Predict the 3D structure of the following.
Amino acid sequence: MAVSLLANEVSDLCIGKPAVRSLPLSAAAGDLAAALRRVARSGAPACVAVTGPTRGAVVARVGLADVLCFLCDALAHPAAALTKPVSALLPKDGAGEVRRVDPRASVLEALDAVLSGAQVLAVPLRAGGRKKHLGGGGATAAAAGDFCWLTQEDLVRYFLNSIGLFYHVAARSVSSLGLVRGDFLSVRPHEAALSAVPLFRRAVASETAVAVVTEDGHLVGEIAPALLAACDETAAAAIATLSVADLMAYIDYFGSPPEHILRAIKAGLKDKGLDAMLELMEDETLSSFSLSASGSSSSDEETGRARLRRPSSGSYGRRSAEEPVVCSPASSLVAVMVQALAHRVSYLWVLDEDDDCRLAGIVTFADVLRVFREQLQ
């Protein structure tokens, strides 16, 4: 089984992947935010690679959630913070490690790299695929320095395509496989969103989200890095002034909140004496918010995506922009994989079997991949 499944190279999993946009460590944080907005408008995943001084070195993968957390530490002087180099945004503990992998490496090597702590793998692109590469003279080189991301999602999809080889575990429940973790990130709806910034950082590094749960443990929503990435850097003002429940409502408007929410945020900034953040927000409102609002309705109609969903306890009557994706402890491994891939998330919240609103734990792609690694011993 291992021989037939792992005969593929990493490059085989990267066919059709676009080259990643990158910025040097010395680039300004404001340039990073602008680059992320451009990437988001192109429809690509809103993240950018940070490259080091050594040729081909990939230091980190950053998204708007990283920028927002960074600005939340510099609320008194946000404009100055945006002039600092991108290196100032990177976590000091090495979380969210990016590891470079040779395109000729085996899938097993890629799997081991992810399970040993790499958040994402950077794979140099080569033109023509494996056959031309092995043929020697016929291959044309990809552009110097071009690479793509290989993610946990890519590996899970790869194993799902060969799930028949794992029939003896595919139908087992995630509970029986020991995949339901109780050490998930969580916050209460009434808590200040600013107090949850350390949790947002951990969610970015772990490829998960922060569950929003009531006092009795009921799941009412989530704040995920991908949802924060739908806003722009002025969302730091919302984090600084709103409760968690109201931040979910803010996110629900995809960075284009109505005027009454903007007024509430501005009033909160004035009360906290954060005049510099208020000034930045007003400047950005003229460009980012207005442009986003003017272009949102047509795109929403074209995609058929509803901008607002069911109500919650937030002051503005809305909950987070996406329903949390949930499963049961009795859900099978293959069902969880299909569900997560269908919703483009790398985790599923697990609800209690006896109370389908109470949060029991989380299943992550990292733990799912460990199951397949054990089967390949």
